[in-house]
Write a structure and sequence with these properties.
The complex is a heterodimer. By secondary structure, chain A is an all-alpha fold. Chain A has a single domain, classed as Up-down Bundle (Ferritin), CATH 1.20.1260.10. Chain A is built from 8 helices and no strands. In chain A, helix 2 packs across helix 4, helix 3 crosses helix 4 and helix 6 packs antiparallel against helix 7. By secondary structure, chain B is mostly helical. The chains are: A mainly alpha, B mainly alpha. Chains A and B meet through helix 1, helix 5, helix 6 and helix 7 of A and helix 2, helix 3, helix 4, helix 6 and helix 7 of B.
């Protein structure tokens, strides 16, 4: 086992944050384009983020300025935020319906709380990047029985995990990436847990998880938005 | 240690600094609080996550992948070699078989990825697993899988190649699924860190996995 070396003095790396602050004028201009001014509706956001014809790419290619990097990350974060809002609402509704008790009830409660923390964290992240968090969508979820709900939760969580995986390579800011990864693996844990409840595969994609593109995910969740 | 590992460890001096500054449990606590309050992105502060990420920035993609490969070798041997020596039953037995197959696939993929970068995949170490019955096997499985999640999440932001990052992401998701399944089987929370899985520095990972590496 390698020995620990003593701490070394050293500066922090020049922060992405510092670069963002310096490019303030450009940043504001870019951010207006992705809904920085005023609360964007989900529909407007979906169009802005995905482009006009449901193509699979997000808006910016490899960013050449900190401003456009930040704008791209805001768009991705707002996309994630929309999904988290929906998950949060879903769990809240399920908990209110008292469909699950005991250990499963506790898990559902925990997962709902966790989605709430995701919403908070992502809202904070968007704001700190100078963006405006997308408006909370109005979700609608059919709830008929415990088993139907568990199955729906399984589907939604798998989709959420795939959505984060699909964006990982597109995030510019390492902080945002670290946060997205921290959330991504938790959504995967949710999915695996629900799998055990509905007797479906814990790893439905096999040894390697499959990413999902933004347009695919938004199309899949559209039925759940009033 | 192989030359690759020695070099990686030298490059990993910076992450020792991160461990000394933040510590494990304090970082988790601060991180959760900071994330919840949206204070993570304060312009004046370098955040725990960023420090953890940048702390490992000195490593090349190949070095990071080789580190991950070492962990995958460990998990693969754990399920495929140690597993059959333990009397596993029911769900524990099925998971060990399935997860073992998947870790083997991870080993293959990471080896190929290292080679694709023009580097040499690290050789499989010899391991020792203190787990001879089902209970201790599952407990160790939980440690390994959860550490794996933290390792990937900690290292991934330092990767330069987006393609390698995507591959790492597709693997860490599986480790998280494994971890949750094992934790549930143990009657424990499938989300031991709550809403956010904490990224681990290389030193923190080695603290968990190192004792199992015999040579």
């Amino acid at each position: 086992m390698p020995a620990q070396t003593p701490s070394q003095p050293g500066g922090e790396p020049v922060g992405v944050i510092e670069r963002l602050v310096r490019d303030d004028v450009d940043r504001k201009r870019f951010l207006k384009m992705v809904g920085g001014a005023g609360a964007a509706s989900f529909g407007a956001f979906a169009v802005a983020a995905c482009g006009s014809s449901g193509s699979s790419s997000t808006r910016a290619p490899a960013a050449t300025t900190a401003a456009s990097a930040s704008a791209g990350d805001v768009a991705i974060l707002n996309y994630a935020l929309t999904l988290e809002y929906l998950e949060s609402q879903f769990y809240a509704k399920v908990i209110a319906a008292k469909l699950f008790t005991g250990k499963v009830g506790m898990l559902v409660h925990d997962f709902g709380e966790q989605e709430d923390t995701h919403v908070e964290a992502i809202r904070g992240a968007v704001s700190k990047l100078g963006g405006t968090p997308v408006a909370e969508p109005v979700g609608r979820f059919p709830l008929s029985s415990a088993s139907q709900v568990a199955q729906l939760a399984y589907t939604v969580e798998n989709l959420g995990a795939a959505a984060y995986l699909g964006q990982a390579g597109k995030i510019q800011n390492p902080e945002v990436l670290a946060t997205a990864l921290a959330i991504h693996s938790v959504e995967a844990r949710h999915a695996a847990t629900l799998a055990t409840l509905v007797k479906r595969p814990v790893t439905p994609d096999g040894a390697f998880a499959t990413p999902a593109e933004m347009s695919t995910v938004l199309a899949a969740v559209k039925p759940f938005i009033a | 240690m192989t030359p690759t590992e020695t070099k990686s460890q030298a490059a990993g001096v910076a992450d020792t600094r991160a461990v000394e500054v933040h510590g494990v449990s304090r970082a988790s606590f601060i991180l959760r609080g900071a994330l919840a309050a949206g204070a993570l992105y304060g312009a004046s502060a370098v955040t725990p996550l960023v420090s953890m990420a940048f702390a490992q920035g000195a490593s090349s993609d190949a070095e990071i992948l080789n580190f991950a490969l070492t962990l995958e070798y460990l998990e693969s041997d754990f399920y495929n070699v140690q597993g059959p020596q333990v009397h596993l039953t029911g769900q524990a037995r099925s998971y060990a078989k399935l997860f073992g197959e998947q870790e083997t696939e991870h080993v293959a993929a990471l080896s190929a990825a290292v080679k694709a970068l023009g580097a040499t995949p690290v050789k499989k170490p010899t391991f020792v697993f203190p787990a001879t019955d089902e209970a201790s096997f599952l407990a160790l499985a939980s440690v390994l899988e959860n550490t794996g999640v933290g390792a990937y999440n900690g290292a991934a932001p330092s990767l330069k190649s987006k393609q390698v990052l995507a591959e790492a992401g597709s693997i860490v998701q599986i480790e998280a699924r494994h971890a949750a399944a094992i934790d549930l089987l143990l009657g424990q929370s499938p989300t031991p860190s709550g809403g956010f899985d904490i990224p681990l520095t290389k030193s923190e990972v080695l603290a968990k996995a190192g004792p199992l590496i015999k040579s």
